[in-house]
Amino acid sequence: MVTPALDSFAQVLEQARACKACAEHLPLGPRPVLRAAATARLLIIDQAPGTKVHETGIPWNDPSGNRLRAWLDPDRDTFYDENRIAIMPMGFCYPGRNPKGGDNPPRPECAPLWHQRLLALLPELQLTQLVGGYAQKYHLGARNKKT
Ligand code: SF4
Q1: Confidence (pLDDT) at 74
Q2: Domain with 59 in it: what CATH number?
Q3: Strand 127-130 versus strand 85-87 pairing type
Q4: Which residues contact ligand 1 via a Cβ below 6 A?
Q5: Whose CA is nearest to atom 5 of ligand 1?
Q6: pLDDT averaged over the chain?
Q7: What is the total count of domains within the chain?
Q8: pLDDT value at position 7?
Q9: Given 13, 32, 73, 109, which is the most exposed site by the fewest CB atoms within 10 A?
Q10: pTM of the shown model
Q11: Which value, to the nearest 10 degrees, does the dihedral of the CA atoms of residues 100, 104, 105, 106 take?
Q12: Strand partners, 24
């Protein structure tokens, strides 16, 4: 039997995964990539998917993911066990290329639309890792520092 809290979590996750709120700004279309379960104890908030992550639907499925796993030291199975580790970018969908180089910033609509709703449904979180300037600025606010 599904408890009301888990049901609500599943509903919000399903809504987030079906989101098209900023579709007109996404060159490859909406494909929200996030992983979470109500039991997760570690949350990684990063920037936004690149093209490889967009193609596979698997977050951190690229060389930067290999580096992060080497730093954090979980094996691949643990890293992708959403019952333990939630992964929620600042922008859930690939934001396109920046003409000046690199990818565009995460879409600004995304975190205000989804983060608080999802965070409220992750009661077991013990640690949130903010990866990159966008996540740190948004979630730390005035407490954000240079390093
Ligand atoms: S980037 Fe975020 S707000 Fe935009 S369509 Fe994807 S999930 Fe929705």
Answers
A1: 87
A2: 3.40.470.10
A3: unpaired
A4: 19-23, 30, 32, 91-93, 107, 109-110, 113
A5: 20
A6: 92
A7: 1
A8: 59
A9: 73
A10: 0.91
A11: 180
A12: none
